[in-house]
Each structure stands twice: as C-alpha cells, then as structure tokens.
Amino acid sequence: MNLRSREPLIFDRSVPGKVGLDLPKLDVPPAKDTRPAHLKRHGFDALPSCSEPEVIRHFTKMSMWNYGMDQGMYPLGSCTMKHNPRLNEKVAGLSGFAESHPMAPSTLVQGNLALIYTLQEWLKEITGLAAVTLQPSAGAAGELTGVMLIRAYHLSRGRKRRAILIPDSAHGTNPATAAMAGYEVVDVASAADGTVSFEDITDAVTGRVKKGLLAVIAEHKEDIAGLMVTNPNTLGIFEHRIDEICKCIHEVGGLVYMDGANMNALVGVARPGDFGIDVMHMNLHKTMSTPHGGGGPGAGPVLCTAALEPFLPKPIVVRDTEKVGEGEVPHHTYRWDWERPQSIGKVHSYYGNFGMLVRALTYCLSHGGDGLRTATLRAIVNANYIRHELEGVYNLPIKTASMHEVVFNDAIQAHHDVHTLDIAKRLIDYGFHPPTIYFPMVVSGALMIEPTESESKEELDAFVHAMKMIAQEAEETPDLLHQAPVTAPLRRLDETTAARKPVLRWTKALV
What we know:
13% strand; Aspartate Aminotransferase, domain 1; globular; 14 helices; alpha/beta; three-stranded antiparallel beta sheet
C-alpha cells in the first residue's frame, strides 16, 4: 500500500443502488416502524452503499494505518501498553465464561464466582490490603470509588471533612476525582528530586512559594479527609518517604489513597498495604495485561483496609466452606453477598467487566508469584536501559532513580527550535508510536517513556537508535522535524483546531 495514499471515508465510496449482499424478498408483511419520531435521524442517507470487496478493502486499509502492541513498541508513559498474551484471550473465550449470563443464579455459575473470588485473593496478596471490589470498570472509576469509600468512612464517624491533598506529581484524574466526590483539592509541592516535598518550595524564577506537605497539614488539620498519591509517581520515581507521608496524614485522622496505575513497578517487590496505604485501585488493563487502548473495556479494582471494607460496593463474592465426608474434606461454595448495610452501593452494572477479570487471573496464574516479580524487574531494567542510552542525547530534568518509566524533555533540541511535538511526530516516520508527551506537567516539554517488560533488547535498541537519529536531525535538518510525519498516510494535522472544533460525524458538507 502506498503510505501517501489517502483512503476516502466509506461514505465517500458509496454509490446509490450498489449492494454487498442480496437478501430474498420478504414473504411476510414488513414490520411496522415503531421508532419515536424524535429518535429518528433526519437529513442522513442511512448506511453507505458499497460492494463487499470495497467494504473489506476499506476496513483492511484502515486497520493497516492503526498502530498497536502487535506491531511494535508502544512506549506511552503512565499507560503501560504491554503485550496481551493470547492465552488470556483463549481462556476468556471459553464458552463457560463468554456465554454466561450475569443474571444466572449463583448455583449455575459456581466456576465463575470461584474465579472472581480467586482473583480477589491474588490482588489482596499482591497489595497487602484486606478487602477488594472488582466492580469498577477503569482506573478513573476506581479512583472515584476509593474516594467515596473515604467519604463514607468519615461520615460514619460523624465527620464532614472537606479537603483532599494531592501532590502536583499526581495523575491528572486525581484532582478531578476528588472534586467529583465533593472535596476541595489542595495542592502539595514536589521537591527537586521529584518526590512529595515536606517543606515549602520557592520558585526560583517567579518567587512564588508552594506549600509542602507539613505546611498544608498544619493549615487544614482536621479538615483533611485524605491524600491521593501516585506511587511510583508520574515522573517514574518511587516516593521513598511514603511511610512518613502516611503517618502524617493518619495523625490528623485522614486516609491515604494510592493511585495504583503504576503498579507494574511494584508487583512482587513492594506492597502498598505494608507502607500504610488505606485504599487504592489497580488498573488490570495495565498491570495484568488485559486489553488497553480505545477506551476500554478495562477493570479498576479497589482494595482497602479492614476499616474501609464495610463500605465497599455491593455485592462482593464470598466463600462458604463445609467439611464433607469421613475425611472432612473442605467443600467450597460461592455466593454474592448483598447484605452490606454500609455499602456505597453499586458502581457498575451487574458485577464489572467479567471478561477482563478472566484475563487478569489467567495472567496471574500463568506467571505465578515469581513470574510477576520477574516481569516487574524487567520493566524497571528496560526503562533504565533507555534512560542510560538516551541521557545526554535528551535532557533528563530530574536525576532521581527511575522505576518503570523515564521522563526526558526537549531542552537540548529546543536550541534548534525543535520541540517535543516535533520529536513525537518524527518517531511515527521511524515506525514507532510516540511516547506520552507534555505530561507530567511539572516537566516542561516532557517525553515520558515506558517500555514495559514486553520489549526485547533488540526492540529497545531500535527505539534508542530512532531517538538518536531524531536528535541528530534536530541539529542538522530541523525543518524536516517541523514537517513530520512525512511518510505517514496523513501529514501533520491542525491539532489545535481539531481539539477546539471537533467534527464527530460525517455530513455531505465535508465531501
């Protein structure tokens, strides 16, 4: 396929009267159109009229334009775009899982309930926390669920606290989550090493003072409902004083929520419950390799301490055990527990994205505890290999040790009027998906790279080579980077207009 050829929209290929399938004439009266008038689309020529070969070729070409993990490295920092093992897909496709109905009685889906219960136990062991709900369908949904647990906990004790503390290195969803739950968001400064600062920080340029953790706690005290911390944070740095952070929040009666999106750097190595975390979520579509991208479906289980367990969404799967026979062999049965009077209620239709839970447990069982730890260590080694190879070629603004991801910026290339967006667009020409750019916002012009454990040294070397070539081009032919991508099906788009004036559906006016 000529990469420069632009495939038209399927509507533009439409020719009235052309069909891809011949259906027999009706031998019964046509069904009456009972759709309410206000729900019918007007001024739209229904579906396009194309032949079968045209439809197949169109969508095949479009699929070749797309980029996914099956094509190469997908280094989106803080997104953990790792390989989705085909074993997971095969198991999730077994008829007993794929064809079971969520309204089936518990007696008919004992295997499915056993699977959910087993995954609950795995996640509790991995995190060091006492209880879990598998209902939330993504990380952001898990965040909101976790903060709602914090709110329910305080209200049950007659407290109406108003503030959630959030470090400026946290994920962007954290302040949105706190606000949605009705809390005031209070920023906490980061220190020069990229971790939460206990002391106030003065901006060397503006002279503005940003309050550190101790000052914020002293100011708000008993108004603090909790703190949301991402660990490792969005700079790929472990919060080495996390136990002190938890202790400070607990001393004023608050709780600590951990955004577990970066658990790919901790599984099998460190357990959040052991260093004082009260509640957290995990992204199974990141850490446990279930499909990611395209908006889901995901799974964002929430884990918590025993003190928060009564407030978990209902139902949860519980196991009843009785001794059977002369040998008193344990016999387990599983059921949904709906008798939870303090529960915050349901946070997902039915019981969550079950297919993702099947994939996650398959991943855990196929790796085993040692294998999960090995995957974590390889993810860390891969990120640090890239850091070692590119440091000096690209600016590394914060020198603290990296975990599973590393954040460079465009400070060196900016001397040649080449910026982060130019670098990202040029990577497309080299056959790589760009890393996360301009995030975290505490780093100007950020390039946030997370290779995950999925990548071989050969793939990492190819990525490093591409990045070095782009750095060389920035010095020698910067105009080339301003035009990139130059070999992709579409050239550089007007992203500002697209963001501010999006066109979300086809109309004849666009032809």
